[in-house]
Input
Amino acid sequence: MKPICRILTAALFSLAVQGVCAEVKTLTDVRGREVRVDVPAKRVVLGFYYPDYIAVSGVDKFDNVVGISREFWEKFNSGSWSLYRAKIPSLQNIGDIGNVNAGTFSFEKTLAMKPDVVVLADWQYDVLKEEMPRFEKAGIPVVVVDFNAQTVERHTASAKLFGEIAGTPERAGQIAGEYAQGIADIQKNAWPKRASPSRKSISSSETRVLPNIALLSAKKYVGCDCRYSGRRQYCRSLHQRLGGRLIPSSFLPPSPTL
Output
């Protein structure tokens, strides 16, 4: 075979392999939106949940992330940023889309990164709803994920979406399954007699010792579903799952700012 023929054959084979590995999938995000995405994505703009994406996809797949909200990670969680940057040197030069929360998000910067997909947290999508027609016009799919809801359904769905986008669905499925099983084990062991503990059962004559729980949160921290009820402040989703006695509940002042 002549050299030119060998080159052409190799090129055609490479294209064929790429065609087999890549496909356009319709993903259903946590809002129930159906989004067509070319997966695995080669250029991802990730609005939030960076360590979660790395956990689901693996460190090497993060090389395909071309833009993040750097302030969220680099400034507000500098300790985490330093640790990850030591393992992923490319973080130092990763693109910045601005801070959605601070109103500095830039559609133009995001567009210049030529992303195959933009992944936003649920609350980021709420803030950027008016920008969605611009993404649609540019042909950029937007997928919404949500780890802040602190529910098994949204946690596992978000992990699986990350897996589809990164091309690691098996790894994502395993992690989602382990998370769901872990929560199920906590619920079973923390409250073995009742699936949904009530105040009455807590104060009954049961001899089983309940765990004491201490939860810390900031008033505006998006990662905790905080609720106020008289003199009790608690992170409802975790408190109800664990079914224990919340240590500060008897002495916190009404509507405290922690």
Remarks:
- The chain has a mean pLDDT of 79.
- The chain is about 40% helix and 15% strand.
- The first helix runs from residue 3 to 21.
